[in-house]
Amino acid sequence: MTDIAPPKLRHPEKAHRPDKLSAERPNWIRVRAPSLPGYFKTRDIIRENGLTTVCQEAGCPNAGECWAQGHATFMVMGDTCTRACSFCNVSTGKPEALDPFEPAKVADATAKLGLSHVVVTSVDRDDLDDGGAEHIARTIRAIRRKAPNTTIEVLTPDFLRKDGALEVVVEARPDVFNHNLETVPGLYLGVRPGARYFHSLRILQKVKELDPSIFTKSGIMVGLGEERIAVHQVMDDMRAADVDFLTIGQYLQPTKKHYAVARYVTPDEFVAYEKAAFAKGFLMVSASPLTRSSYHAGDDFIALREARTAAV
């Protein structure tokens, strides 16, 4: 079993992290505070079921818009991660035991919200023998029973050194299997030190080998100091692994203790990345400053399914 992280602390200091936040954000990535009635309805359902969302834990800039439309990304297996990625706003430390009733709670909230498409993600659970794979699979099965017409997308950890874990999740047959590469390989040591680029790439490739009918999806952040040619290489690597759907969004520094923003990528550059990605053969691409893994996931799934049909 992999050793878990040291006692819990929020955003541990690292030598490369800056003393102050990066320059003021440009107008194209500013968002309004949530105020629409739908936002509060979604919030109340999440609270009633005692659930955690990545929208809250990761400080997603789109939470107000998504919750107002009745959409939320559920984060299972607690709010404490065993990894300490320098870009992430989720707490790091020793997690609590799994809640055996959580899959049913997620399924119940999915039904109450009337979701046509649901996204389920999780923290890394290196403390568990299977990395939490069975818990994710149970959540998929619970949603299938409670909301049989809802399509399901999972955004999973990398299951590093957890033999057989990926197969457990794939056997539960989510409609979309998402695992984010997050950044270019040259920045992994500073941005995602507990992960391995080619292991994550292999996860995505293996999903297709196990079940070609499952859509695969992955995303990266830009503005961390990556070179444009490195982004294109990641696209090529993903296509070699038969990834269907690519997301690219601007990295936003959560606090002054996190990895610094190197620059704010312009909307025109995102358009260029999107065009290049489609040219490389992705069925679906979402690239914009505010793009996140689950942003507009339901609409994107419909477009993704239509693109596959058109390609046949």
Write the layout of secondary structure elements.
Layout: H1 37-48, H2 54-57, H3 63-68, E1 73-76, E2 80-81, E3 91-92, H4 102-113, E4 117-122, H5 133-146, E5 151-155, H6 165-171, E6 176-178, H7 188-191, H8 197-210, E7 215-222, H9 228-240, E8 245-250, H10 267-279, E9 284-287, H11 297-311
Parallel strand pairs: 1-4, 2-3, 4-5, 5-6, 6-7, 7-8, 8-9
Helix pairs in contact: 4-5, 5-6
Q: How does this model look, in words?
A:
The chain is globular, with a radius of gyration of 18 Å. Strands 1-4-5-6-7-8-9 form a seven-stranded parallel beta sheet, sandwiched between helices. The protein has a two-stranded parallel sheet with strand order 2-3. Strand 4, helix 5 and strand 5 form a beta-alpha-beta unit. 46% of the residues are buried. With 312 residues, the protein is of the alpha/beta class. It has one domain: TIM Barrel, CATH 3.20.20. It has eleven helices and nine strands.
List SSEs in N-to-C order: HHHEEEHEHEHEHHEHEHEH
CATH architecture: Alpha-Beta Barrel
Biggest sheet: strand arrangement: 1-4-5-6-7-8-9
**So, the CATH homologous superfamily?**
Aldolase class I
* Low-confidence residue ranges: 1-22, 54-59
Strand content: 5-15%
The CATH topology label is TIM Barrel
By secondary-structure content and strand pairing, the structural class works out as alpha/beta
Question: Main β-sheet, in a few words?
Answer: 7 strands, parallel
* Mean pLDDT value: 84
Shape: globular
CATH class: Alpha Beta
User: Helical region count?
Assistant: 11
The rounded Rg comes to 18 Å
